[in-house]
Design brief:
It is a single chain. This protein is an alpha/beta fold. The protein has helices at residues 22-26, 33-40, 54-69, 93-101, 117-130, 154-157, 217-238, 256-266, 277-280, 287-297, and strands spanning 3-14, 18-21, 44-47, 78-82, 107-111, 136-144, 162-174, 182-190, 198-200, 213-215, 248-251, 306-313, 317-324. Helix content is 32%, strand content 27%. A hairpin with a 3-residue loop joins strand 12 and strand 13 (317-324). The protein is globular and about 60 Å long.
C-alpha cells in the first residue's frame, strides 16, 4: 500500500549571541551555580538582544533549514510557527517570517502549545501533507522566554532561554510500513485541569499585560515523567515497535532530571538521548528543533535512524512524533 509520508529535507537553528552563565545569574537573583546545575543540568542560556524579536530568531533558523534542504521559500506551501512569545498579539509572527523569507503564496500561522508547540506544529503540518493540501512545509519553534521571566523568582528565571529551530518537510511516497522514511505517527494530548501548575499571569483579555511565568515545579516534574513515557510508548505501539528499536530520543529540553527520569522509565540508555539543556536551557517550543539540528549537523543522526521527539508543556499539553530519518 502506497501512502504519503512527510520527510525532513533540512534542519536549521539559531541562538542569540548573548550567553548568560550561571555565574551571571547569581548577580541577578539569589542562587548559585551548584544549585542550578544540580537541579537542572543547565550551565548557560542565551538571551535575545533588546531589539531582537521572536520572528528574528525564527527567520535565521528558517533560512538555515531552507539552505540545507536546497530549496527557496517560494516553493513552500505553508509555514507554521510554534511560539508562546510572539512579536505582537497579532498578526501572527509566522506572517512576519513569511514576508522576510520572500514567500508570497501559500499560508502561514502561529501555534501555541508552549513547550509542546513544536510537536503540535509538526503533527499539524504532517496532516496537511498527508491530506494532499500541501507538498512542502516549514515548521518552526521559536521563543524569547527572557521577556516573560520574573528575575526575582530563582525557581523559574534560571531555567529558560531564547532560541529557534526549524525543519523543512516534504511529501514523499512510502509503502505504509515502519521502514518508510518520514513521520510514521504523531500523538497529541492535553489536560486543562492542570493549567494552573505552569502558566503566565497575564494576557490581553485578563490583565492587559504580558505577565510573568509561574510554575509549581514539583508537580510539573511528576506529571512530566509519567506523561512523556506514556506518549512515547503510545507512539511506538501504534507502529508495532519498541523502545529497543529507537536510535535516538530527542526530548524537550526542560530539565536534565526530567530527561533522565523519562529515559529510565523507558529503559533507554543515556547514549541514545540527545541532550542540549546544559548549553541551551529550556527554550520551550524551540528546544526540540534546536536539539535535532545539533544532532543532525554533528553527524549523530544518519539516514534510516528511528527518532522519537517528545515534549510536555503548560496546559498541560504533551505529545510525541515518531519518524525515520
Amino acid at each position: 500500500m502506497k501512502i504519503i509520508r512527510s520527510i525532513v529535507r533540512g534542519t536549521g537553528s539559531y541562538l542569540p549571541k548573548r550567553i548568560v552563565t550561571n555565574e551571571e545569574m547569581t548577580r541577578m537573583v539569589d542562587t548559585s551555580d551548584e544549585w542550578i546545575v544540580s537541579r537542572t543540568g543547565i550551565n548557560v542560556r542565551h538571551f535575545a538582544a533588546d531589539d531582537e524579536k521572536t520572528s528574528d530568531l525564527a527567520i535565521k533558523a528558517a533560512e538555515r533549514a531552507l539552505e540545507m534542504a536546497g530549496i527557496d521559500a517560494e516553493s513552500l506551501d505553508m509555514i507554521v510557527l510554534a511560539t508562546a512569545t510572539p512579536d505582537q498579539t497579532f498578526p501572527a509572527s509566522a506572517a512576519t517570517v513569511q514576508a522576510a523569507l520572500g514567500m508570497t503564496s501559500g499560508f502561514a500561522f502561529d501555534m501555541q502549545a508552549v513547550c509542546s508547540g513544536f510537536v503540535y506544529a509538526l503533527a499539524t503540518a504532517d496532516n496537511f501533507i498527508k491530506a494532499g493540501q500541501v507538498k512542502r512545509a516549514l515548521v518552526i519553534g521559536a521563543e524569547t522566554f527572557s521577556r516573560i521571566l520574573d528575575f526575582e523568582d530563582r525557581t523559574t528565571c534560571v531555567l529558560f532561554g531564547d532560541g529557534a529551530g526549524a525543519v523543512v518537510l516534504e511529501a514523499h511516497e512510502g509503502k505504509g510500513t515502519s521502514d518508510d522514511r518520514g513521520i510514521l505517527t504523531s500523538h497529541l494530548h492535553s489536560d486543562g485541569r492542570y493549567r494552573d501548575l505552569l502558566y503566565v499571569d497575564g494576557g490581553p483579555s485578563s490583565t492587559g499585560t504580558v505577565g510573568h511565568l509561574r510554575m509549581k515545579g514539583r508537580d510539573v516534574f511528576r506529571h512530566a515523567v509519567v506523561n512523556l513515557a506514556s506518549v512515547v510508548n503510545e507512539s511506538l505501539d501504534a507502529v508495532g515497535l519498541t523502545a529497543d528499536d529507537l536510535d535516538w530520543l530527542i526530548p524537550h529540553q526542560a530539565n536534565k532530571r526530567i530527561l533522565d527520569g523519562t529515559s529510565r522509565k523507558l529503559g533507554l540508555p543515556p547514549e541514545k538521548v540527545v541532550v542540549t539543556v546544559g548549553k541551551h536551557s529550556n527554550t520551550s517550543a524551540a528546544s526540540i528543533p534546536l536539539a535535532l539540528d545539533v544532532a543532525v549537523r554533528d553527524g549523530r543522526i544518519k539516514e534510516g535512524d528511528l527518532l522519537l521527539l517528545e515534549a510536555m508543556g503548560g496546559g498541560f499539553t504533551w505529545g510525541a512524533s515518531l519518524l525515520r530519518w
